[in-house]
């Protein structure tokens, strides 16, 4: 994101995992691991929504970790329809956030993967924050969030999202009684609305730190 961004290479199940890490000015509250959109549709850790999430976490006092799924950028392996990508995310968590407060976030396909990570980690880790943006609920079976996690979760979707219809996310959230924050007129990539997206995430993080 800037000249202070640290570039890291990890070893995962499929080989190298390309990672970038940004630190807050103060002692970190914890580590936020952020997953990017669909690899087969040009999704990478440099996506603007992913970078916006990382900036919001850093501003909120969190270490922000972004990574490329297998087969993307310098990460080795091939796309695995979410199964291997979940293992990639868990590998990043295990190696860069082995203990302490944890935040899990993702955009689009990355939100689908992040929901799976929450399901796997909730019982064993201190998951403080969950941020899911543009959740890819139309073509994927997105894991429900634990009921106890709802007050720590922020689910954001664009009203005019033409990639993942708002109705698909509502159909996922409704059985859980999980609130969804809707950005009026917002498309899938939140063009012209990234500052608003950042402010919503920042407000959520401040509330969680209170």
UniProtKB/TrEMBL annotation:
Keyword rRNA-binding: no
Pfam annotation, one family: Hydrolase_4
Gene source species: Variovorax paradoxus
Classification via InterPro entries: AB_hydrolase_fold (IPR029058), Hydrolase_4 (IPR022742)
Acetylation in keyword set: no
Region called Disordered, residue ranges: 1-25
Protein name: Alpha/beta hydrolase
Leader sequence segment: none
UniProt-listed PANTHER family: AB HYDROLASE-1 DOMAIN-CONTAINING PROTEIN, ALPHA/BETA-HYDROLASES SUPERFAMILY PROTEIN
Superkingdom to which the source organism belongs: Bacteria
GO molecular function term, any single one: hydrolase activity
Keywords: Hydrolase
Serine aminopeptidase S33 domain segment(s): 49-140
